[in-house]
Amino acid sequence: MSFWEYVGTRHAQLLTDAYQHASAVFQCMVIATLIGVFLGVVTYRSEWAGSLATTTTATVLTIPSLALIGLLIPIVGLGVAPTVIALTLYGLLPVVRNAIVGLRGVDPALVDAAKGIGMSRAARLFRVELPLAWPPILTGIRVATQMLMGIAAIAAFASGPGLGNEIFRGIASLGSANSLNQVLAGTVGIAVLALLFDAAYVLIGRLTISRGIRA
């Protein structure tokens, strides 16, 4: 059976796996973005606090994804839980680092001007600093998403959702008629999802970043 014949006969299952893969990455990126931006806001004013946040989240990336998911299984069990925890942890570093860099890169004169017209600290943060820091933050989100697309495939080890199940099934049955088709289908599917997500981020950037900031 050729690759395209295999895709044609298994398209329903492949679409289901692709949806679950995309959904897991999207939801984990939402969580990682909220936590990462929060950590950036809390720590960017202090050099040591920013370094601590960056170093701590960077340390997570030194743990092999298979090992981290394996360590989580006895604690939270199989399925969605270890997948969500692992992906969220792995997605933090680019968001935290870029949030800190972006917030520190805001022109102090603009912040002082906002303060001079009576804006509170929260108003300055949400109406001046975060909008100006958004381009690097969005870049961090894009980088983290591309990372998680590949790491999410490992979640199949813990009975997690996504296209990793195709890859693992193919590897487990190497030598059978469709083993290579399974691995290829899972790999190509992840690559296509990564491209679609990146295109979506480009569109979001064009819609949310003013031309002046892009320039």
Quick take:
The chain is an all-alpha fold and 215 residues long.
Structure overview:
The chain has 215 residues and is mainly α. 81% of the residues lie in helices and 0% in strands. It contains ten helices and no strands. The chain has helices at 3-9, 11-43, 47-61, 65-76, 80-104, 108-116, 121-151, 164-172, 179-208, 211-214. Its main location: membrane. Pfam families: BPD_transp_1. InterPro entries: ABC_transp_perm/SBD (IPR051204), MetI-like (IPR000515), MetI-like_sf (IPR035906). Residues 18-201 form the ABC transmembrane type-1 domain. The chain crosses the membrane at residues 24-44, 51-73, 143-163, 183-204.
* Percent helix: over 70%
Main β-sheet, in a few words? none
Unreliable segments (pLDDT under 50, ≥5 consecutive)? none
Structural class: mainly alpha
Computed over alpha carbons, the radius of gyration is: 20 Å
Overall 3D shape: elongated
Mean of pLDDT: 91
Order of helices and strands: HHHHHHHHHH
Q: Could you tell me how far the N terminus lies from the C terminus, measured between alpha carbons in angstroms? A: 51 Å
Number of strands: 0
Count of individual helical segments:
10
| Beta fraction | under 5%
